Amino acid sequence: MRSIQAAFLTFVLAGISAGQTAARKPAPAVDKQKLADYLRYAEGFTSSVQIAVGDPEPSALDGFYRLVVHLRVGETKQDKVYHLTADGKHLVADPVWDLSENPFLETAPLIPADGPSFGPPGAKITLVVFNDFQCPYCREFARTLRENLPQKYPHDVRVIFKDFPIASIHPWARPAAEAAHCLSDGKPEIFWLFHDWIFEHQGEIDPGNLREKVLSFAKEHALDPAKVGTCLDIHGTAPEVEASLKQGRALEIEQTPTFFLNGRKVPGALPWKSLDTLIQMELNRPAFIPPAATGK
Questions:
Q1: Closest CA to 175 of 219, 233, 248, 258
Q2: Does the predicted model carry a pTM greater than 0.90?
């Protein structure tokens, strides 16, 4: 599919005139309602957005047709242009979408499905969150997830935590990430206790007192402070944190939090109402669009 996009870019750079390459075959038939439903899901257009799909028109790109989609919210209007293949099966966008496949088909398999989690493994929605313990926006989003998801979607959503400490602006974020794994040692319930605790006490922590705070947490939860302290001193869980960072970089994450909802990439700390809308959109995904498999 990427070759289609490459052909489009090559064409633009070459500056071939529209008159020389205009499509001459009859325009493909378009099921406009089906296409509008696909775009609503793929682009994340809420129910407040009215979508009107235009007729395919000759395109400057040989073998493609220009398709204008008219968007409207109240009195605000916007047109978005796509390019449709001659067989009517693909739209040129970024990324290129195969209309018989999930729009996140290429992204979803790259998203790691391992790590501390809550929610049932067989849930309809997998929400993978890349977080930074020192990030105030991560704290707010963590609260949104923990306070709302178990109550409203106890069987439908699984949340997986991934580390993405941004050391350049958050000096104790990476040591805190290592500490979380030292403390939990494969026990998810301890990880989530620490996750909630450190975000709650975020404003009290600094690089100088992090170790003391972590060991105090260990004592309060009947963990071995000596074992935890050694793990911190030798950076015993640094490889886990580095692996998560590497995964995040491969997914081109630029800010925290960034999460992936069944493959859909969403940067920023969404408020509950907006997140709930995305969840409902996924749970009500049009039946003709297959699910995207998250994780390798």
A1: 233
A2: no
